[in-house]
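Q: My labmate handed me this sequence with no annotations at all. I'd like to see what the chain might look like in three dimensions before we decide whether it's worth expressing. Could you predict it?
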Amino acid sequence: MTTGKPATRRIHRQTLIEMNRAAFTARRDAAHERARAILENDVDKGTREQRADWYLDCLRLMEDALRSTLRSQIAQDGPLIQYLKLVRETLKALLALVNHEINLAQEAQELSRLLGPETVARLLASDKPFSDSERSVLDAIHSLLGFGEPLRARDTKERQRSFEEDDRRRFRVAQDEFTRLFSTYGR
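A: Here is what I predict for the chain of 187 residues:
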């Protein structure tokens, strides 16, 4: 007997999202937290080459956080996704800046021959551990992280409200595993 209403079909993607929301949320949170820790604690201590490696690790972590967020919800746009994309793109700019500085330093002798020693000396004049542009972009990332952390935390809290007991268990297990996995980044 039919009621005249068409049966609601479950969208396969929606079902997978519901099943994996806890694990993807834990993965996102662990990746985001590790990137924050590297950017807030480690980069001031490193050489250009170390910073380039750390920025690349942070970029990978933020890409993972973004991918996990996209996989854990149907809506593919929103403030949290925009925030993660903005951090990712800013990290790309930061990595490009430091790689440019590394390349300049490595090519100084050849550049000196082509451009003259005075020009190259001006290009490499910074005795500071960070160039002004790298420091400015890093400061912008710190500001973004300060803005985005409450957004991410609120999203996690809202998601957890809908978790069943098994989802909460899966979240804790996944968070422990991803935290352990991501702890290798930035070393």
